[in-house]
Specification:
Nucleotidyltransferase, domain 5; 256 residues; globular; 6 strands
């Protein structure tokens, strides 16, 4: 079974449009249950190396916040760029060494607002904010990835017979206090896109970010993806490294 940790970036609360964050992004970091202990151990080791103690102890921060470490804010305001870069590279290295797959979905928030105002897109009618259609696309992307994994273990005869052997399942692990809500899973599974999502466990596990290594890693990926979406023509070495090393595998836009 996979634990699929949900990361997010560009969620601006009641302010749907924000020129500095035009996209809302969800990422799903797929961690096989057999890898979770080693990932936690490697993450704790790098925290001791960079902070001198585990997160939340002594002078270490409670969590590694993506924007803070990238921009040198908050806890990291006194850290030089090189030191912050080394921390980011060490975090990304955990995923790159394992080729831990990440599935991404995103929405252009201004296009959502414009389409809602115009009333020309019926599929947007049930949703008042970009989070709804984005969650729907995200769960669809996760389900498609699971189908591909399951089909890769099937013989040609099994595929031709149309009988899907579900050997890989995924439990969605989201963060307490973030935009993901328990009702989203039920809404997706009742939709046309979700009715055949056989590999997706029909519940969401919620955890506090400070106790979830996977959540902190996938939030970092979501942040880097959003920065790339905002200015794709600029150099993005972290994003490129994740994509070139088979971590970022698929990016699904919400098409409006």
């Amino acid at each position: 079974m996979f634990l699929t940790y949900v990361g997010e970036s560009g969620v601006t609360g009641d302010t749907v449009t924000d020129p500095t964050q035009p996209h809302q992004v969800y990422t799903g970091l797929f961690v096989h249950e057999s890898q979770s202990i080693s990932i936690n151990g490697e993450f704790n080791a790098l925290c001791r190396r960079h902070f001198g103690a585990p997160l939340g102890q002594e002078d270490a921060p409670a969590v590694i916040r993506s924007a803070d470490v990238y921009q040198g804010l908050g806890y990291f305001a006194s850290w030089p760029t090189l030191k912050r870069n080394e921390l980011i590279q060490d975090c990304l290295g955990i995923m790159i060494r394992r080729e831990t797959p990440v599935i991404t979905s995103y929405i252009d928030k201004q296009r959502f607002v414009d389409a809602k105002s115009a009333g020309t897109h019926d599929f947007l009618a049930p949703w008042e904010t970009p989070t709804g259609p984005l969650v729907n696309k995200f769960f669809f992307a996760v389900s498609m990835f699971l189908d591909e994994l399951n089909m890769s273990t099937m013989s040609e005869d099994q595929i031709m017979s149309g009988s899907m052997s579900v050997s890989n399942h995924s439990l969605i692990v989201a963060q307490n206090g973030a935009s993901m809500k328990p009702r989203f899973m039920g809404e997706f599974l009742r939709s046309d896109e979700g009715i055949d999502a056989t590999g997706l466990i029909d519940d969401i596990c919620f955890v506090d970010q400070e106790y979830s290594v996977g959540s902190q890693l996938t939030n970092l990926v979501a942040y880097l993806v959003r920065r790339w979406l905002q200015n794709p023509e600029r150099p993005h070495p972290y994003f490129d490294g994740l994509r070139d090393n088979k971590v970022i595998q698929v990016i699904y836009p919400v098409t409006i």
